[in-house]
């Protein structure tokens, strides 16, 4: 076997001077660590006018230090990279990059075990340079890259589809329940945009003294569903017995079930069991990356504390609850930020009781839910398909890298997903 440095250029990041960095877009976007590695490309929060090391478009970005060591992403433009990031590029060009990522994923667990660091693993330049590379001919590298790349591309298409569907539902909510567009249109004697006459007729043409459309009210968001906080699973509960289920913490909401996920067969109450399609709300953690609403896309699991299972109580559908939570997520993040200590914030039941949402008459709520239900259903289906694709990819990867599978036959097997 050869070494990674034989086939790839490895650029270790170097942090620019602090006074050359800002949170405003000036200079190059700066990556000190994986800002948002759950998506296909990073979402930087800093910029610098004094970049020291660079990543280029199509580079594989690899987090080498900190709590997210081992996470990977693709550069979609030029970036300045700090000490927390290495940029990897195959010497043969971009077409080999998915193979390069597969090589690292194949040995990632061993790489992290060998990494130094008392709190979090730190992967050194030497460790990356010396990483063993399977003896694949160039044509095999291209074929494996094509297979893994096709799966990654489909996953990314689904991710973008889900994001678009979520945005469409939020835009409709804003129009009806925040900007009150149909009411303003009716009050002005004009037709409401993108709305049939029967639906427009349901809306009033005036506002009450409270600023709401006539006949509308406000209610606490906590009253719109049942909020079940997860159980306090502890070390003594963890075991990988045949009947054990994964314990879902915030890390699992972001990355799914991984090698770091804890399992338990301890039943602390059936109300803590979650399944595919459940709506979850993480209420503790970094306000910018952890406070969020999720649809659980995997099978049965146990819910850990710091996450609410948000279950319909008859007032609103799951689709409406998800849309509303997503729409107001910036405000929830701000509530958590105002309580932030050592980088963490939280949302309490008291906060949810004080947070009001607009409630329209039942006939309008019914039409709204009928509008967003198909979007929500398709949103969920894309999540479920991505889980299937990710599982397929995880199954194929070691067999392709080890040579157990022939690449030609494997490409035929994944054509149904293209």
Notes on the protein architecture:
- The chain is α+β, with helices and mostly antiparallel strands.
- It has three domains: 2-135, Adenine-n6-DNA-methyltransferase TaqI, Chain A, domain 2, CATH 3.90.220.20; 136-205 and 363-418; 217-359, DNA methylase specificity domains (Adenine-n6-DNA-methyltransferase TaqI, Chain A, domain 2).
- The protein has helices at 4-7, 97-106, 108-114, 125-129, 138-178, 181-187, 197-200, 250-255, 318-327, 329-337, 349-354, 362-402, 407-413; strands at 2-3, 8-12, 21-22, 28-31, 46-48, 54-55, 60-63, 72-74, 79-81, 85-90, 132-133, 217-220, 225-229, 245-248, 263-264, 273-274, 279-282, 284-285, 292-295, 301-303, 307-312, 345-346, 356-359.
- It has a five-stranded mixed sheet, with no helix packed on it. Strands 2-10-7-8 form a four-stranded antiparallel sheet. Strands 13-21-17-19 form a four-stranded antiparallel sheet.
- The longest helix is centred in the middle third of the chain and has 41 residues, at 138-178.
- The protein is globular.
- The chain starts with a strand and ends in a 5-residue tail after the last helix.
Annotate the secondary structure layout:
Blueprint: E1 2-3, H1 4-7, E2 8-12, E3 21-22, E4 28-31, E5 46-48, E6 54-55, E7 60-63, E8 72-74, E9 79-81, E10 85-90, H2 97-106, H3 108-114, H4 125-129, E11 132-133, H5 138-178, H6 181-187, H7 197-200, E12 217-220, E13 225-229, E14 245-248, H8 250-255, E15 263-264, E16 273-274, E17 279-282, E18 284-285, E19 292-295, E20 301-303, E21 307-312, H9 318-327, H10 329-337, E22 345-346, H11 349-354, E23 356-359, H12 362-402, H13 407-413
Parallel strand pairs: 4-9, 14-20
Antiparallel strand pairs: 1-11, 2-10, 3-5, 4-5, 6-9, 7-8, 7-10, 12-23, 13-21, 14-15, 16-20, 17-19, 17-21, 18-22
Helix pairs in contact: 2-5, 5-9, 5-12, 5-13
């Amino acid at each position: 076997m050869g070494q990674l440095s034989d086939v790839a250029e490895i650029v270790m990041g170097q942090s620019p001077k602090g006074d050359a960095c800002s949170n405003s877009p000036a200079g190059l976007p700066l990556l000190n660590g994986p800002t948002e590695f759950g998506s296909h490309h990073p979402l930087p929060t800093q910029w610098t006018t004094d970049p020291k090391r660079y990543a280029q478009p199509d580079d594989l970005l690899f987090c080498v230090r900190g709590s997210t060591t081992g996470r990977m992403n693709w550069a979609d433009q030029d970036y300045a990279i700090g000490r927390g990031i290495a940029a990897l590029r195959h010497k043969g060009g971009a077409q080999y990059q998915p193979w390069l990522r597969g090589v690292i994923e194949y040995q990632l667990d061993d790489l992290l075990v060998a990494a130094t660091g008392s709190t979090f693993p730190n992967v050194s330049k030497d460790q990356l340079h010396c990483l063993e590379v399977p003896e694949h001919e160039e044509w095999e590298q291209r074929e494996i890259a094509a297979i893994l790349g096709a799966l990654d591309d489909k996953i990314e298409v689904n991710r973008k589809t889900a994001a678009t569907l979520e945005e469409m539902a939020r835009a409709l909510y804003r129009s009806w329940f925040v900007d009150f567009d149909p009411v303003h249109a009716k009050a002005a004697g004009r037709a409401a945009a993108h709305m049939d006459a029967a639906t427009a007729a349901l809306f009033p043409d005036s506002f009450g003294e409270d600023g709401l459309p006539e006949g509308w009210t406000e209610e606490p968001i906590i009253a719109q569903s049942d909020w079940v906080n997860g159980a306090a699973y502890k070390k003594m509960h963890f075991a990988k017995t045949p009947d054990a289920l994964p314990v879902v913490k915030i890390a699992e909401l972001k990355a799914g079930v991984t090698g770091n996920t804890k399992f338990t067969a301890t039943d602390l109450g059936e109300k803590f069991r979650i399944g595919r399609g459940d709506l979850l709300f993480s209420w503790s953690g970094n306000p910018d990356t952890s406070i969020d609403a999720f649809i659980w896309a995997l099978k049965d699991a146990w819910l850990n504390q710091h996450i609410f299972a948000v279950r319909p109580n008859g007032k609103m559908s799951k689709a409406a609850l998800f849309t509303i939570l997503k729409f107001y997520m910036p405000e929830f993040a701000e509530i958590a930020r105002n309580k932030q200590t050592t980088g963490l914030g939280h949302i309490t039941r008291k906060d949810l009781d004080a947070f009001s949402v607009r409630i329209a008459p039942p006939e309008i709520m019914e039409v709204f839910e009928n509008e967003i239900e198909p979007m929500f259903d398709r949103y969920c289906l894309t999540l479920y398909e991505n889980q299937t694709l990710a599982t397929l990819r995880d199954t194929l990867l070691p067999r392709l890298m080890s040579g157990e599978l022939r690449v030609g036959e494997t490409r035929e097997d994944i054509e149904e997903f293209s």
